Amino acid sequence: MYPLLFSKVLKEKVWGGREFEEFLNLRLKPGVTYGESWEVSAHPSGPSMVTQGPWQGRSLPELVLDRPDLLGAVEPRYQKKFPLLIKYLDIHDRLSVQVHPEDSYALAHEGEWGKSECWYVLKASPDARLILGLAPGIDRETFRKKSQTRSWEGLFQEVSVHEGDFIPIPPGTVHASLQGSLFICEVQQNSDTTYRIYDFDRLDNGVLRPLHLEQALEVIQFDQQPRPIPRHERRATNVRGAAWETLAEDPHYRVAHLAFDGEWEDPALDVFHIHSVLAGKGTVQSSLGEWPVNAGQTWLIPAQVHTVWTGNLKMLRSWV
Question: Which of 24, 140, 154, 162 is the S-S candidate for 296 at Cβ 3.0 to 4.6 Å?
Answer without folding.
Answer: 24
